Amino acid sequence: MKMNSRFLKACHREPVDVTPVWFMRQAGRYMAEYRAIREKYSLIEICHHPEIAAEVTLQPVRALGVDAAILFADILLPAIPLGVGLEFSKGEGPVLQNPIRTMEDVKNLRPVNPEVDLGYVMDAIRILRGELKDIPLIGFCGAPFTVASYMIEGGSSREFLKTKTMMYSDPQTWHALMEKLSVVLSDYLVAQIRAGAQTVQVFDSWVGALNPQDYQEFVLPYSQKILQDAKKENVPVIHFGTNTTTLLPLMKQAGGDVLGLDWRIPLDDGWKLLGDDVAVQGNLDPTLLFAPLPEIKKRVHDILDRANGKLGHIFNLGHGILQHTPVDTVKAVVDMVHEYRVDK
Asked: Can you tell me the distance from the alpha carbon of 277 to that of 236, in angstroms, rounded to the nearest whole number?
């Protein structure tokens, strides 16, 4: 039975009554309800308790009136069964205790069965499908480049020096790692769909660190595998990256029914680069949610004017909601989007 959801319709470039809207990181630390849970549980503990992960996923759906829920999880969860080790240090972000630096490290990565090793994620999805009723659920994974960069750097990075050094100096090890990750991440995403996710998003958050030539050689085949495998499961697939203006045509080639646009390119220019045969998602700068409401409304309307009622626009930020964002402002943006009408 096909759900009558404006979000799913927009993913398929079908007519909608109003533009659908959801936000990356819509569940999380800007919400008081989430902070109360975090006082009792770490991020990884929340993920490992399906009923708590489901509750956190539902919080913004109740509070904001968004058109889709995104599963509360972390793109690095597969690093745990792979044997790389994962912890979140206070204020520092993710730390991977056993970073990947050599071919031997790649060979030592353990096989992953997502239904068993990441079964708590599937359990959260099953709980949510029972709770969400008419709101579709988005599952997700990290793209191979972004997950690899964390695993090689041992955490977050600005320059991606170790990652790029491996790509350029030891391409054999790089391709072996990407091959392995693309299989694990593809299996993980497909398992989420089979557990009940009605859409999936592939997050390539750091791929904007690359130029088009390097993307084509070192990344495209591996992202393509994940996106194509997910597509075979007959759900819409969203392909997202930041700082990707020069990469958009190649990202489209890699795949995805919906391409994410960040705020660095005007929405209509980005859509022109991609062509009318894909939907687009975006693209308000997350920092604008700290601006006065009249300024926010002007920017929201500018994005919607640029979409001009064309089929296949999903309103979102260009990246995730920032930590101290006022919840009332996020709710106001949802209302602005839903109340907007194209003047014909």
From this structure: 14
Q: Which amino acid is at 30?
A: Y
What are 108-158's pLDDT values in tens digits? 999 999 999 999 999 999 999 999 989 999 999 999 999 999 999 999 999
Active-site residue, 38 included? yes
Give the whole-angstrom CA distance, residue 102 versus residue 97.
Answer: 15
Model confidence, pTM: 0.97
Band the pLDDT of 166: cuts 50, 70, 90. very high
Instruction: Report the alpha-carbon distance of residue 212 to residue 197 in Å, rounded.
Output: 31
Write down the mean pLDDT value for the chain.
Answer: 96
Per the residue annotation, which of 34, 38, 129, 268 is the catalytic one?
38
> What CA–CA distance (Å, rounded) separates 15 from 24?
23
d(CA 343, CA 341): 6
Domain 6-339: top CATH class: alpha beta
Amino acid letter, 258: V
From 13, 30, 67, 74, the catalytic residue: 74
Contact 46, 56 (CB under 8 A): yes
Residue 74 known to be catalytic: yes
Of the listed 6, 13, 25, 299, which one is catalytic? 25
| Marked catalytic residue, from 13, 30, 150, 229 | 150
Q: Which two tokens stand for residue 33?
A: 């309800």
Q: How far apart are CA 166 and CA 101, in angstroms?
A: 8
The answer to whether residue 126 is catalytic is: no
Q: CA–CA separation, 296 vs 333, rounded Å?
A: 8
* Alpha-carbon gap, residue 296 to 306, rounded angstroms: 15
Active site residue 150: yes
